[in-house]
Amino acid sequence: MHSPPLLTSLIAWSSSHLSLRDKSFQQVAMQNRCAALRDLRVALDSDPTNVETNLAISLVLCSLESIMADNGDAWFLHLNGAAGVIASKLCTVETSGGQGAACLSQKFEDEHSGRWLLRNFAYRDIVMSVARDKAPLLSSHHFLGPDEPRLPDSHFGLASEILEILYHTTVLNEQIKASLHSPSTLPDSAAVHPNIPPGIFAQSPENMTRFLSLEARLVRWTCPPSADLSLRLLGETYRYSALIHLYRVMRRAFPGRQDEFSSKAGFQVASIVGYVEQMPTRSLPECTLLFPLFLAGGEATDESHIKCIRNRMIDMIESRGFRNVEVALSVLEKLWRLRIARKTAGASLRVDWLNIVQQEGISLSLS
Fold first, then answer.
1. How far apart are CA 140 and CA 122, in angstroms?
2. GO CC terms for this protein (predicted)?
3. Rounded distance, CA 251 to CA 262, Å?
4. Nearest to 138 by CA among 167, 166, 179
5. Least CB-packed of 101, 151, 249, 265 within 10 Å?
């Protein structure tokens, strides 16, 4: 697509990345970021129906603010803006069983580019929902289907089904949170037994069935064939990070079984570390390795696993300069120190990375 505003945003992204490597670019990078924001506003005001350009600019700026990590939750605001661009053109995706996504892609000048943009949004939306412990902004799983099932996506490689399972897990997580903290969101049947604690509904047989179904899909998943070893390894790290997230949600729903689900989540760490150690450093698929590394780091207790995760993230910081990786590692370092301190003091209360990001107001971007 030919779009001067989009070109401005791409220049802003490039100069911002350069400024992370060379401080002499900082002033021009800031000027380009301001110009990109100005052009985004002009594009939205002058042609709000141009979903292709407006979505592309929003996603570029979301990525820019993510790697810079110097402006609070600016990356999330751009992601929210991208969701608004999509929602303005998508009235039926919630009820059409996915057909709405196909209809939306037809509104792009280039359907192939449109589907890529929608997948890009879906990836960021689903990863965001894990990092912020919130529901996805849209029914993003409808956008995950690749143009060709055997062709990898530029962000999540061969793991499109894993992202879809992650989506359903985050939606279930939001329902669990609501049932635990807001009685008004409970089923009508709660009125019949008003003295039953809300947590009982989080632990319902129906929810356990949903958990077990998602777990079975992840366990059975087979990575699509590819000649690229790094892509296959990336897919496996996403599979095991999805299992970690699933067990974390189950731990929330069933507090009486915390040790069981913590142990299950911990088992996945070794698998992720094993696949990460096989992946060549500074390979292209490594660009999206932050999500599985962080999820593994959040459950890691073995010193060798922690060392592997720390060293890989440090290498990513040195080679790519992305500040969101620095922020993520700083959260993990605080978590690991707190766990050591509490273990030394004999404290039994579990500390979680969510406690750190929420208490310190950290806007964590893992995409």
1. 5
2. nucleus
3. 7
4. 167
5. 151
Q: Where are the alpha helices (DSSP H) in 203-360?
A: 205-220, 229-253, 258-278, 290-299, 303-320, 323-345, 353-360
Cβ count near 124 (within 10 Å)? 27
Separation between Cα atoms, residue 218 and residue 271, nearest integer Å: 14
Beta strand residue intervals within 19-106, DSSP E: none
| Cβ atoms 280, 230 nearer than 8 A | yes
- The angle subtended at Cα 76 by Cα 27 and Cα 82, nearest 5°, is 100
- Residue 313: C-alpha distances to residues 303, 332, 338 (Å): 15, 11, 20
Q: Which one-letter DSSP state was computed for residue 152?
A: P
Distance CA 67, CA 40 (A): 19
User: What is the residue-wise DSSP string for 21-43?
Assistant: H-GGGHHHHHHHHHHHHHHHHHH
CA distance 116 to 119: 5
**Cα–Cα distance, 275 to 106 (Å, whole number):** 38
Which two structure tokens, joined as six digits, stand for 146? 């690749």
Instruction: Classify burial at 21, counting beta carbons within 10 Å of its beta carbon; exposed 0-12, middle 13-18, buried 19 or more.
Output: exposed
pLDDT in tens, 271-287: 999 999 999 998 888 99
Q: Which of 146, 134, 142, 234 is nearest to 175 (CA)?
A: 134
Question: Which among 115, 15, 1, 130 has a CA at the least distance from the CA of 57?
Answer: 1
CB atoms within 10 A of CB 24: 9
Lowest mean pLDDT among 170-184, 228-242, 268-282, 315-329: 170-184
> 120 near 108, Cβ under 8 Å?
no
| CA atoms of 55 and 116, how far apart (whole Å) | 11
For 266-278, give one letter per residue: b (16+ CB within 10 A) or e.
Answer: bebbebbbebbee
Per-residue model confidence as pLDDT tens digits over 41-69:
999 999 888 899 999 999 999 999 999 99
Q: Average pLDDT in the 123-151 region?
A: 88
**AA identity, residue 178:** A
* Exposure on the CB side of residue 13, measured as CA atoms within 13 A: 18
Cα 31 to the center of its chain, rounded Å: 29
What are the structure tokens assigned to 13, written together?
């992204």
Rounded Cα distance between 117 and 154, Å, is 11
